[in-house]
Amino acid sequence: MYKYVIFDVDGTMIDTEEAVMFSYQSIIFEKYGRHFSEEEMLKGYGVPTPQTLAKYGFTDIDKAMKDYYKYLVEGFSRCSTFDGIFELIANIKAKNIPIGIVTSRCKYEIVIDACLQGFINQFDSVVCSDDTTLHKPNADPLWRAMEKMNANPSETIYIGDTVFDGRCAKSAGVKFALAVWGSNNAENIDADYYLKKPSELLKII
């Protein structure tokens, strides 16, 4: 049904919630002397790190980024892929279906993640926040990925875990599959498909 498959990273292929939360809350505590509530943290979700830091009240973004990465490297060392992701990618590749990545991470955040580096070479296209001026939920990142893959939107499906991923897919004219296994808000996210485990994607494509 679909000839091209594009994945988000965090919360979709890799369980990074604890690592990212640890990193943000560590620098937030250094700045404010307290940790943010879940509601306060939500306002920074789904956008590139510099934008998130600005939403959390940081003004010296360069310094905040350095402090954030210091903690993130430590956090990434404890991350792992969700169960079934390696098998899913292997099965898709066996069908000769091109696969890509569209993520809000920057290139550096990709490079320092040893877990992701272990299988990123399997992907035909990788688009991160450095590659576009506009970011999710804007359609540009997905359009860039499809351009690299010579993909048609009607033949492409995007798998992600947040409302921003869903809006990005809709804006790009691409079907969206919600990775329920990594989503914290699945009941409030519109999607064309709701996948409880990675292997369910194979039934669609």
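(the above was protein one; protein two follows)
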Amino acid sequence: MRDIRLVIFDIAGTIIEDHGEVVASFRSALLANGMDVSDAELREWKGASKREVIRRFAADRFTTDREQKVEKTYADFRQALENHYQANGVIPIAGAEATFRWLRERKILIATTTGFYREIADFILKEAGWFATFNANVTSSDVAKGRPAPDMILRAMEATGVASPSQVVNVGDTPLDLQAGTNAGAAGVIGVLTGAHAEERLRREPHTHIIPSVADLPALLSA
């Protein structure tokens, strides 16, 4: 892929290890607030704005006090996830730092997008030592619509001064990452296999490439 000016990375499962803590925290918060949702169903929504997903589940289950239930569930999810990362730390995907360095050396801008809210995204990036690494960091708190809408990608483009999606690569580990990249018209829509989804699942979504991890991105872009 030539003339790439911006590479956008998802966070959990793409540049930091994800061992199911996001889904587990989400499911426990939902269950505590009367919404029993399977892990398989939650994995399909991984990468989406968490408040939007809670609102979707609540709409199917409650007719009164729905928004109050949404906010309570969202607060419980935030607390559970923050407790996990504070207790267990943040582990970068092997080779991620080398990939960022390779891109920067070639004057390619880098950014993150995430379904997390601002506070936890900033905490993760600080813990990984990456808070000043990226040219832009966009969260679901910053846009009107989360994935699969392209809003976060478009915001990252705006923040970095990249006008054309033909100069953008979007990298993520979930079906929603691939859908968002496709909806944005990105030149590269790349799935990685370091997250919750198997290769077979990712290949069912529109994409340009599926690679083992972000460590393999320099070789792909060089080719």
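Reviewer note on protein two: The mean pLDDT is 93.
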